[in-house]
Amino acid sequence: MEIEGSNVTALVGLDGFVAVAQLEVDGEWWVKVETTATVVGCEACGSRAVGHGRRMVQVRDLPMAGRPVRLVWAKADLALPGTGVRCGVVV
After folding, report:
1. How many domains does the chain have?
2. Is residue 38 part of a domain?
3. pLDDT digits 0-9 by tens, 12-71
4. Which residues are CB-contacts of 13 (< 8 A; sequence separation ≥ 6)?
């Protein structure tokens, strides 16, 4: 069963995140979320970081409507432009 993303974003209720996909797996509700930040600076040097791919991080959340929930966070890996050096920024 799939539910429209904008409705699920409101249910998840995390500022700065949007639900991009959801699916029921063996009675558990899996919700894929991503951050909404478009410009992020490196915490170490202040340079504007650029996307360098995403990795999936799974987090168990509180039940919703009596159903167990697993958030699948498409966590952005960021790097300094032109260097490929990863930033210490988590988004």
Report:
1. 1
2. yes
3. 677 778 888 889 899 898 988 888 777 777 777 777 877 777 888 898 888 888 889 898
4. none
* pTM score above 0.85: no
- Residue 51: which domain range? 5-79
Report if residue 50 sits inside a domain. yes
Taking the C-alpha atoms of residue 59 and residue 50, their distance in angstroms, rounded to an integer, is 25
- Residue 91 lies inside a defined structural domain of this protein: no
Concatenated DSSP letters of 26-90: TTEEEEEEEE--S-EE-TTT-PEEEEEEEEEEEEEEEEETTEEEEEEEEEEEEE-TTT-PBPS--
Q: Which amino acid is at 20?
A: V
